[in-house]
Amino acid sequence: AAADGLGSIAIDTTQLNMSVTDPTAWATAMNNLGMVPVGLAGQQLVTDSICVPGFDPSLSMMTGITPINPMIPGMGLVPPPPPTDVPVVKEIIHCKSCTLFPPNPNLPPPSTRERPPGCKTVFVGGLPENATEEIIQEVFEQCGDITAIRKSKKNFCHIRFAEEFMVDKAIYLSGYRMRLGSSTDKKDSGRLHVDFAQARDDFYEWECKQRMLAREERHRRKMEEDRLRPPSPPAIMHYSEHEAALLAEKLKDDSKFSEAITVLLTWIERGEVNRRSANQFYSMVQSANSHVRRLMNEKAAHEQEMEQAKESFKNALTGILTQ
């Protein structure tokens, strides 16, 4: 049944241009596609226990998936999620001076320490004894721009990258076995161990960045508060004879009296009055008093007119109601 359902997948080995010597990678790829892992001739590569559950060979598809479109029952439109128990298969990395062989996918991933804040530096251990700084540069510059390499006389070094996300790419190389050229000498091979490193430069830059963000946040809040704060009144100038002469003219103008009286009260509260300016202030106070008395008389006249209007309205309304 598997051969009938998946016969179209069988590939002639004479027409295959890619290497399939790694059955685990081939099985993982077919397993991720939701198919029973089979060989080139149709034979099953792995046991049924690790195949994709719910695969029906007679239908050549996955079953047991709730369909999204009710008009197509029995057919799921969303591919099944990749199985979590299948390890990620890393590939061989070829460099000009060396070759990196991936670790066994069945082994647990290498352990790492807790990531320091603002980490841009990694620790690389397990280097071959004959590894030079140029070879290290060649291998790890694939992860991003390198700003510094501090190599020890022993088989480890520290590499500092330009950005933080490049560290994650370097951590991916942890567990790889490095071999220089084609030599099998022990001094020309080693298993890399890449881990986060605590560097003072990284922490200092991270603190500077946090302080800058805090300053920007404070500035943003201040701008928001200033935007929501009601506008402040304009600043009042200090007393001078010229300003006093201008203010005396404004006190006589009905349209500018409110502004002028505010300035006059501010000058008096500041203590601008002295022997030299007493006469000027006396004339301005007299002008303000005359203006206020005139306003009070006008108010009284308007109130009298209002009372007369009310009385006339009352008499007229009474006459209408009487009729």
Automatic annotation (TrEMBL):
Gene3D superfamilies named in the record: 3.30.70.330
Superkingdom of this protein's organism: Eukaryota
Coiled coil: 285-312
Annotated keywords: Biological rhythms, Cell membrane, Coiled coil, Copper, Electron transport, Membrane, NAD, Oxidoreductase, RNA-binding, Secreted, Transport
UniProt protein name: ENOX1 protein
Residue ranges occupied by any RRM domain in the UniProt entry: 120-199
GO cellular component, one term: extracellular region
Family: Belongs to the ENOX family.
UniProt main location, coarse: membrane
Presence of the UniProt keyword Membrane in the record: yes
PANTHER family in alphabetical order: ECTO-NOX DISULFIDE-THIOL EXCHANGER, ECTO-NOX DISULFIDE-THIOL EXCHANGER 1
Pfam families: RRM_1 (PF00076)
GO annotation terms (biological process): ultradian rhythm
